[in-house]
Write a structure and sequence with these properties.
The complex is a heterodimer. Chain A has 1 helix and 5 strands; from the N terminus they run E-E-H-E-E-E. By secondary structure, chain A is mostly beta strands. In chain A, strand 1 and strand 2 form a beta hairpin. In chain B, the strands form 3 sheets. Chain B has a 6-stranded mixed sheet with strand order 5-4-3-6-8-7, sandwiched between helices. Chain B has a two-stranded antiparallel sheet with strand order 1-2. The chains are: A mainly beta, B alpha/beta.
Chain lengths: 64, 310
């Protein structure tokens, strides 16, 4: 496992080579509820994750 | 994925529109669409003075940014609620709202609840029975009262808020589950002013997904408060949003269709229009002059009388 996904204070790891969409499914995070970014760049969910990637998942939902 | 307009790498895919765009074209598309909705729903015009309620969050700051870029005359109103929650929530959100306004040379009015009324939202809540453990009910009432009063007293033609499609769909969902027909009849992109003092309100972002607003804020470089209000944890609105997002993942476009079909149903008379406001018992509060359906004083003034007199 060598791709890190970070959502608020939680960290997840997946294998490289899968799409962001697939990775979100694997870690149980709703794709509609996050915006994936890498080094400040916003990514679409068909982006294929590479070895060493650190993906910050920006939480989208606000409420109250 | 490629941008539909130029073929460069897309940064956002919007399946509900069958549209993917690069950064440049997305940042052009958002204001264009906002202008389209402002015109479609007759929200306001170029000569109107607009007051944007800003919280320091992504939606309200993005809204203010878009209106500024479109050339509208728009000031901001930030209401300091005095919420800390271990993350200096109010202080940080105020700082970001002020920074945003200063960077663009915009006028921001700051209304501090503690300064004006002697207590923060949490303290007010602790002294009333309205909100029990969470101050959300008190918070909502106070914000509506203040926004309406400032908009009226300072002569703004319209008050705008950053409610997005996800917000509207979640409210619609909740009102449908409870068959709150009165609320359903009033929900929409524009709420008209009335003779009793309700300010005109509009929601220019009502057709954009929350995800789209987040992308706009990030791509525009808008610094917004990322932490949630500490009292939002476990709220019904977030619960409803998550359910709707689950459905959206299976059926792209579901949230947008839900909301637009509701607006269409309203137009064709599916919901009973509210009776004349005065017949519904709306009158002006004898203390503050704000419109209210409560007997005697409005709920806000009753609450303030209780906490200051207690």
């Amino acid at each position: 496992m060598s791709v890190k996904l970070i959502l608020r204070d939680k960290e997840y790891e997946v294998r490289p080579g899968m799409t962001i969409k697939h990775a979100l499914e694997k870690i149980g995070v709703q794709s509609e509820g996050v915006l994936p970014t890498r080094n400040g760049e916003v990514l679409t969910e068909d982006e294929i994750l590479r070895e060493g990637d650190v993906i910050k998942l920006v939480a989208v939902i606000s409420g109250g | 994925m490629k941008c539909r307009k130029c073929g460069e790498k897309a940064v956002i895919n919007m399946p509900q529109h069958k549209l993917a765009l690069c950064k440049q074209h997305y940042l052009e598309w958002m204001p264009e669409q906002t202008e389209r909705f402002i015109q479609k729903y007759h929200m306001f015009g170029r000569e109107d003075r607009i007051l944007a309620a800003v919280s320091g969050g992504k939606d309200s700051l993005s809204l203010w940014d878009i209106l500024w870029r479109l050339g509208y005359k728009c000031d901001g109103l930030y209401i300091c609620l005095g919420i800390e929650g271990g993350v200096n929530y109010s202080a940080e959100s105020q700082r970001l709202a002020e920074k945003f306004a200063e960077e663009r040379g915009l006028r921001l009015r700051v209304y501090d609840i503690a300064s004006e009324h002697g207590q923060t939202i949490s303290e007010i809540n602790a002294r009333t029975s309205r909100g029990q453990n969470k101050p959300c009910s008190v918070c909502g009432m106070v914000k509506r009262q203040v926004m309406n009063r400032v908009a009226r007293e300072e002569g703004y033609q319209v008050l705008v808020t950053g409610h997005n499609l996800d917000d509207e769909a979640a409210v619609l969902f909740g009102n449908t589950l409870n068959w709150a027909v009165g609320y359903l009849a009033r929900q929409g992109p524009v709420l008209e002013a009335n003779a009793l003092g309700l300010a005109r309100k509009a929601k220019p972002l009502c057709r954009f997904y929350e995800r789209e607003m987040t992308a706009y804020a990030l791509l525009s470089g808008i610094e917004y408060i990322y932490d949630e209000c500490p009292y939002a944890v476990g709220s019904k609105s977030i619960y409803y949003k998550e359910i709707l997002n689950k459905m959206e993942a299976d059926r792209p476009g579901l949230k947008l269709t839900y909301y637009l079909s509701f607006l269409e149903a309203k137009k064709t008379g599916a919901f009973i229009k509210p009776a004349d406001d005065e017949k519904e018992g709306m009158h002006t509060c004898p203390t503050c002059g704000q419109p209210t359906t409560a007997a005697g004083e409005c709920s806000f003034c009753k609450m303030m009388t209780k906490i200051h007199g207690a």
